[in-house]
Amino acid sequence: MRQTLCMTLLLSGALVLSACEGSKQANVTRAIDAVNAVDQKNVAELMLASGNPDEAVSYFAGQVESDPDNISNQRGLARSLVRAGRLAEAIPTWRKVAQHPDATQDDKVMLAEAHIRANDWDSAETVLNSVPPTHETFDRYRLEAMIADGKKDWKKADHFYETAAGLTTRPSGVFNNWGFSKLTRGAPREAEQLFTEALQHDPHLFTAKTNMALARAAQGNYSLPLVRMSQQERAMLLHTMAIAAIRKGDVNVGRTLLQEAIDTHPQHFDEAVRAQRALEGDLG
């Protein structure tokens, strides 16, 4: 009886040990799979953020080939194709993503952006019109603003720019685009205010500095804006204002600004020199 009990206890112990070992192995396998998944996600994010666009395309193309139904891989490929400027491939890839069973409204918005990058504004508008109005995101309104701008529907454009700016913590690009829109409409004073807002959010945004110089020149104000700038940027902005002045007929002002640009640049400013020579040639 005692021997039978001992055997039973031994067998039970063996089964428990076996179960524990199996459980440990399963936990180890799950942990390895989790680490691999995290590593793969990190690699994907790295490729999208800072990798060479063509290398990213190759990486995600390989991922799609090995797991064609994974929408994350398809999105990565679509984004990489856009970054690489391969829009003829990016658009059908984004379209495939948008038709995936796990697709979101954001995927449609990204498809619309790809159409805009390809200068296919009608298709972009059609895609955005298929997105429910309840889908209120920064990217959606940013694109809506650009489309309204292109159609010269200024009331809608202003509304969408303002809405988009309120939906992001980094609105500098929106304010810059909105300001450029105002500049093309012949409202340089309003444009300058928007460029100022852009630079308050991102003091390094050189396109906003250039646009502000153009807005000031359009108002006959040829003094540089009081914003942070390097000597090279200062020279480039002086050159920009000089060209704007000459085009307005303020030739003497333009000549003076060109000379300032040449004197300001830490190295020889070839563009300003060429413009100056062309100006003197025209006057000679």
TrEMBL record:
Source superkingdom: Bacteria
Keywords: Signal
Signal peptide boundaries: 1-19
One Gene Ontology molecular-function label: identical protein binding
InterPro entries: TPR-4 (IPR011717), TPR-like_helical_dom_sf (IPR011990)
Identification of the protein by name: Beta-barrel assembly-enhancing protease
